[in-house]
């Protein structure tokens, strides 16, 4: 079973994604801020992390940098409600697989996850 970590300060978004992905056979952890997300990434070693770019405290860009420092194998997809092309390019340069705009279209997300994780 593939493990996904969702890091987003929007708690309802996290819970909705978690429930949706669990029903489709993924093991899912959630974290409501960057610090908690990094801690869970170190402990649970997910196959993939969905990380919001814009969070209070540790930004998604910082979380991405730190995840890639301690584990290059974790695939990171950025989530953004108001992303700019500059932030998307910056995340790709830092090792993100890609980004998804909010509000998230669940079926498109599922297709992407299956493509990336091969499940």
UniProtKB/TrEMBL annotation:
Lineage, top-rank taxon, reads Bacteria
Q: Where are the transmembrane segments?
A: none
Q: Name one GO molecular function term.
A: DNA binding
Keyword annotations for this protein, in alphabetical order, are:
DNA-binding, Phosphoprotein, Transcription, Transcription regulation, Two-component regulatory system
Q: Which residues carry this modification: 4-aspartylphosphate?
A: 52
Which SMART domains does UniProt cross-reference here? REC (SM00448)
Signal sequence span is none
The protein's name is: Response regulatory domain-containing protein
């Amino acid at each position: 079973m593939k493990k996904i970590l969702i890091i987003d300060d929007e708690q309802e978004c996290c819970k909705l994604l978690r429930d949706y992905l669990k029903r489709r056979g993924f093991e899912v952890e959630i974290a409501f801020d960057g610090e908690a997300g990094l801690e869970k990434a170190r402990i649970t070693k997910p196959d993939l992390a969905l990380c919001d770019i814009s969070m209070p405290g540790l930004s998604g860009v910082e979380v991405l940098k730190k995840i890639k420092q301690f584990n290059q194998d974790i695939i990171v997809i950025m989530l953004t409600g108001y992303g700019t092309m500059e932030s998307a390019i910056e995340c790709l340069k830092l090792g993100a697989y890609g980004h998804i705009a909010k509000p998230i279209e669940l079926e498109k997300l599922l297709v992407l996850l299956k493509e990336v994780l091969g499940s």
